[in-house]
Sequence to fold (153 residues):
Amino acid sequence: MTVFSRVLLAPALFALAIPAAIAAPHASSTEAQGLLDRAVVELTKEGPAKAFAEFNDPKAGFAQKDLYVFVFDTKGVYEATGANPSLVGTSAINLTDAEGKLLVQAIIASVKDQSEGRVDYVWLNRIDNRVEHKVSLVRRVGDHIVGVGYYKG
Fold:
């Protein structure tokens, strides 16, 4: 390879590496499960008022990498969400994913007859602005549905 072709090739290889460097690392399913477990313990131990305030506070330790805790009541109303606390009190019952799946209805259905569920869907990753496959792990705690979602990518 000539010096000239190396000079031309180097910037091209560098340009290909930039998107990988910019993309934020995804949290793992294990990390998501751990955060969900911690959130359920916190809700059970401290009660809804204190736990929900912590889930909504980005400095309280319930948001890590691209993970955050969310909570719905059984009618699909946000009780907490680390992604956007201004949504608390609003209904998300008709919220759809990028492919039109009724996401919150699927989450509620996943824990209707059991205490734990899992919902696969397609969602916009706001960290890197790409639509990606995502999984939410959810657990019913009384009248609350606590969840943490992670990107499969």
The first strand starts at residue 63 and ends at 64. Confidence is low (pLDDT under 50) at residues 3-21. The CA atoms of residues 54 and 61 lie 8 Å apart.
